[in-house]
Design brief:
The chain has a single domain, classed as 3-Layer(aba) Sandwich (Rossmann fold), CATH 3.40.50. α1 links the parallel β1 and β2. The protein is 37% helix and 12% strand. It is an alpha/beta fold and 216 residues long. α4 crosses α6. One of its GO terms (molecular function) is prenyltransferase activity. InterPro entries: Flavin_trans-like, Flavoprotein, UbiX-like.
Length: 216
């Protein structure tokens, strides 16, 4: 299950969904109302319930720089759920999902999940994920963080969630903004146990980022 909240960082969500699909994983997707405004602002794409397949394809086809890229995602393995549909399948613990990835997670989303609210389907599924003891990865995207948000993140950690700040690293030899986005997306997939080849892993060799990339 992938939940997209209203924080800036829609390229992170796109990279995670592409990574899941590339790994052969079926994806349940919920896009919050606030995230639609962010998506429109960052990409120019108006995400619509009635046309979600077309809009999702357009979104996944964009690079992190907002320009058309070579991504060609097949969305046939994506099942979309409207954010206001609290009777959706994933709202129940009996619905079969492996876990939930919230990418990106806004501070409002963090607060709602930490307090066990269910103001929309995204928060409801997060609460169900925790109560069912399934993996919940929260890729928080905000800076600086207030004391209140830090306490809420600690509460999520204590509840069993993985708190994963959207913090790109540079040892992977990034040469493009997409490389930085893919690093964060790859760390999210790592936390979920999903194989991928989105970034160069650290192998204990200083200066490796500036050298040739190893094939395979």
């Amino acid at each position: 299950m992938v939940g997209v909240s209203g924080a800036s960082g829609t390229p992170y969500a796109a990279a995670v969904v592409r990574g899941l699909l590339a790994a052969g994983e079926a994806v349940d997707l919920v896009v919050s109302r606030a995230s639609r405004l962010t998506l429109l602002d960052e990409t120019g794409i108006a995400f619509r319930d009635a046309h979600w397949r077309d809009d999702l394809r357009a979104w996944l086809a964009l690079g992190a720089d907002g320009k058309p890229a070579t991504f060609d995602a097949d969305v046939s393995d994506v099942r979309y759920w409207a954010a206001g549909d609290l009777a959706a399948g994933p709202s129940s613990g009996s619905y079969p999902v492996k876990g939930m990835l919230i990418v990106p997670a806004s501070t409002a989303c963090v607060a709602g999940v930490a307090m066990g609210l269910s103001k929309d389907l995204l928060q409801r599924v997060a609460s169900v994920t925790l109560k069912e003891r399934r993996p919940l990865i929260v890729a928080v995207r905000e800076t600086p963080l207030s004391g209140q948000t830090l306490r809420q993140l600690v509460a999520l950690d204590e509840a069993g969630a993985v708190v994963l700040p959207a913090s790109p690293a540079f040892y992977a030899g990034a040469t493009h903004i997409q490389d930085l986005v893919d690093f964060v997306a790859g760390r999210v997939l790592d936390a979920a146990g999903v194989p991928h080849r989105l970034y160069r892993r650290w192998e204990g060799e200083l200066g490796g980022a500036s050298g040739p990339r190893r094939a395979g």
